[in-house]
Amino acid sequence: MQALFSHIQKIYPISPEAESALGEICKELSFTKNQTIQEIGHTCKTIYFVSKGVVRIYYYKDAIDITESFEFENAFVARAESLFTGKPSQKAIQAIEDTNLIAIDSNKLFKLFDEHHDLERLFRKIIETSYVTTVNRIESLQFHTAEERYNALIKEAPDVLKRVPLKFIASYLGITQVSLSRIRAQK
Amino acid sequence: MQALFSHIQKIYPISPEAESALGEICKELSFTKNQTIQEIGHTCKTIYFVSKGVVRIYYYKDAIDITESFEFENAFVARAESLFTGKPSQKAIQAIEDTNLIAIDSNKLFKLFDEHHDLERLFRKIIETSYVTTVNRIESLQFHTAEERYNALIKEAPDVLKRVPLKFIASYLGITQVSLSRIRAQK
DNA sequence: CTTAAAATTTATCATATGATAAATAATCAC
DNA sequence: GTGATTATTTATCATATGATAAATTTTAAG
Questions:
Q1: Which tens digits make up the pLDDT trace of B58-92?
Q2: CA distance B6 to A119
Q3: Distance CA A157, CA A23 (A)
Q4: Which pick of A63, A184, B155, B173 has the fewest CB atoms within 10 Å?
Q5: For the whole model, what pTM was predicted?
């Protein structure tokens, strides 16, 4: 739990009361490598914080497994398109390594926002940051070649190569695994 | 100004006090077709609401003009990657038609959040919605063909074709104008 | 360890899209 | 309205990436 609180501290420090209220609606969970954390078709009512390990969000397009995103230690994970709309998600969350998560009950969290203005501000800032990240990713997918995207990824997050299988990285970059292999070979 | 208030009403109704405080930090602006609303290199300190017309956000990649997004009536526009980070934006905002905007001073808005919790909640929800939109757009760019993306666009927003030049639509879809022309021809 | 399963690479061929240039159509300025 | 500018389409050729299959390497299970 402490990992979450120190992470929060860096984003927007909240009052001890808010922190304690937040602690009340959190659960610590463990998953083994490859284990499914949340299934496709499930409506997302949890915001996870990764305290140890790596997870990915994925979905199927024409029966092909596509990785939408990875998250490592000290990052939040949620299927936004379900969490913020209340609709069932077409995406799943899976542990890529043995992973420890802190699960925040989103309905309880949203209720806490009424009492704890600072908690709402914190999560507003978290969403803002996630939003900026996705806007930048659109730019990358819109007009960069697969090779440029691969190079950018290993520059920004060299850990990914060590901890995430290439088949997941390929679909994350919007290409097939074979194509990624080809790009890696020509160096 | 009324267009903004009625739009807000549908998202998250705010108190009359909050509405009046918001009104105080807004300005109504008009731009003619093709006019630049905000320049590249400028740090974004404004959230716009489109009350009439269409605007686009664009940037240059290798001297080629790329449209990141369009916004029509009753939508908010801001260069998130600058607004939320305080860094100068590499993107510009331009009117595609004669356009009326309501400009919200973001620094003043963020200060109002301290007094008006409901205003912060409103904007949290607006950001959440924008975030969901961009996440869905990543999915579209990640593994759909150019033709699928074009078909999805005209299905979801048929107005775009009538009001936005094809050269802007092409780069928005992540393809060249010539390629878009080819896709349109094969029908 | 040994074997099976999974991940990654390599090879071949097909195709969608890019780059460039030119033709045509639409829009704008006077 | 007329000519100039801009937008769109068409054509040709080049290339990056996809699809498929097979070989190789790595990982996992017993």
A1: 999 988 999 999 999 999 999 999 999 999 999 99
A2: 28
A3: 30
A4: A63
A5: 0.95
Determine the Cα–Cα distance for residues A169 and A67; give it in Å rounded to an integer. Answer: 7
Q: Which residues of B touch A81 (CB under 8 A)?
A: 132, 135-136
For B107, the enclosing helix (H) or strand (E) is: helix B106-115
Q: Coil, helix or strand for A101?
A: strand
Span A2-143 CATH architecture: Sandwich (2.60)
Taking the CA of residue A12 and the nearest CA in chain B, the distance in Å comes to: 14
Give the model confidence (pLDDT) of A136-168 as tens digits.
Answer: 999 889 889 999 999 999 999 999 999 999 999
Tell me the residue type at B13. Answer: P
Amino acid, single-letter form, for residue A14? I
Using an 8 Å Cβ cutoff, are A39 and A83 in contact? no
> In angstroms, rounded to a whole number, what is the distance separating the alpha carbons of residues A109 and A119?
9
**Rounded to an integer, what distance in angstroms lies between the CA atom of residue B60 and that of residue A160?**
29
B140 touches strand C (CB under 7 A): no
Q: Tokens in use for B71?
A: 């916004």
- Hits for CB < 7 Å against strand D across B residues 146-185: 165-167, 177-178, 180-182, 184-185
Cα separations (Å) of A127 from A74, A107, A121, A122, A150? 15, 16, 10, 9, 26
> Which residues in chain A have Cβ-Cβ distances shorter than 8 Å to B143?
61, 64, 66, 171, 174
Q: Could you tell me which of A57, A142, A12, A14 has the C-alpha nearest to residue B84? A: A12
Which range among A4-8, A42-46, B115-119, B139-143 shows the weakest confidence by mean pLDDT? B139-143
Instruction: Identify residue A18 by its one-letter amino acid code.
Output: A
The Cα–Cα gap between B171 and A56 comes to 29
CATH code that applies to domain B2-116: 2.60.120.10
CA-angle at B24, arms to B20 and B29, nearest 5°: 120
Q: Read off the pLDDT of residues B15-65 as tens digits, 9 standing for 90 and up.
A: 999 999 999 999 999 999 999 999 999 999 999 999 999 999 999 998 899
Query: What residues of A are in contact with residue B128 (Cβ under 8 Å)?
Result: 80, 84, 127
Question: Could you tell me the two tokens for B79?
Answer: 């260069």
- Whether the per-residue pLDDT at B187 is higher than 70: the answer is no
